[in-house]
């Protein structure tokens, strides 16, 4: 009888983690009190969709925006009812036109790319860096065509993209840069907040993010004109431009992307706590990295110099050749030990059915089939080898965002990993037999 083998929970041994960790919950008494006051006031939103002082929203919207400006060190913060709305507003505000190409990462949430399509522009997927999982500037440059107008840089998992390189490319080619920093609020890049280095950037306030208001988003920019256009797109631009005296009518198709007073009152309290939440994530991640060090074939998250990581996800990379055990088997063993929030895949957006079949608006392949799309854009498997290989073979993500992570919780995760790694030969044999 092989005692080592019997020890693993996947082979019937005792589980390392028997009690699920408490859910991450950043909402406290301050948020309850702030929301209560707004509810009692009866004014749950004070926006008007016409040229009027209330075009800019009510007192909590304004207060939250001014506080975000001070916190992130930007000239303008514009709240929106989701970060998906924020991304749509950003692409419109920087002046993207139908058929323009926008370079985006495939390793992101789907809205980073649909925000581009939304304006009948064409998402072009460039590959990512294996270390940061963010856009690879070399691949970005290789994907630039005469039709490229912008780069959508996604600060994925909590680490900034290589903004110096991306901004330099943008300057050389006359492109706009948008930062999707949904997962990295509070992350630093060379002393500045991620999201604030692009022409426009911002953060999600959805339930799963570091700080949340249920749903919501914050756009940030230092550009007065972009800020104005963001506010117009947020709030029925077409009905406001006349009264406001706006002469540039490009993309002045407006929406109701307005965030309410309750959410903004909660957001004000959440913003005060962001630094603390980020700090505790970073402490948990540092302890995890320390605990996992020395395990063969397992690469802990990389933090580039002069950057900080805020660990929405704690991304691991397996060297499956060195391990001799497929990723799926390792993940099964870890899950059996009680490790929660593990994922063996993230996103390869170019492989989604919509891009594979080029069917977005209507049934005739618009916008790709239309004359506004000036060249054949490929979404074939193979265009993003790094992102594809991570997805197919080597990526193992731990959703740090999902649970409260005390030292004790981190130590249990580490213990489960160490137990599985101590039993790799048994896993190897069982994988062979399967
Ligand atoms: C969460 C997220 C979004 C969308 O934000 P919502 O507020 O849910 O609309 C976009 N991009 C990335 C990278 C995200 O993680």
What is this structure, in a nutshell?
With 434 residues, the protein is α/β, with parallel strands linked by helices. It contains 16 helices and 13 strands. The protein has a 7-stranded mixed sheet with strand order 1-9-8-5-4-2-3, sandwiched between helices.
Number of strands: 13
Structural class comes to: alpha/beta
Largest sheet: 7 strands, mixed
Order of the strands making up the biggest sheet: 1-9-8-5-4-2-3
Task: Let me know the CATH homologous superfamily of the domain at 29-270.
Answer: Type I PLP-dependent aspartate aminotransferase-like (Major domain)
Radius of gyration: 23 Å
How many individual helices? 16
Measured by DSSP, the beta-strand proportion falls in: 5-15%
Describe the structure.
This protein is 40% helix and 12% strand. With 434 residues, it is of the alpha/beta class. It has a domain at 29-270: Type I PLP-dependent aspartate aminotransferase-like (Major domain) (Aspartate Aminotransferase, domain 2, 3-Layer(aba) Sandwich). The strands form 3 sheets. It has a 7-stranded mixed sheet, with helices on both faces. It is globular, with a radius of gyration of 23 Å. It binds pyridoxal-5'-phosphate. Pyridoxal-5'-phosphate binds next to helix 4 and helix 5.
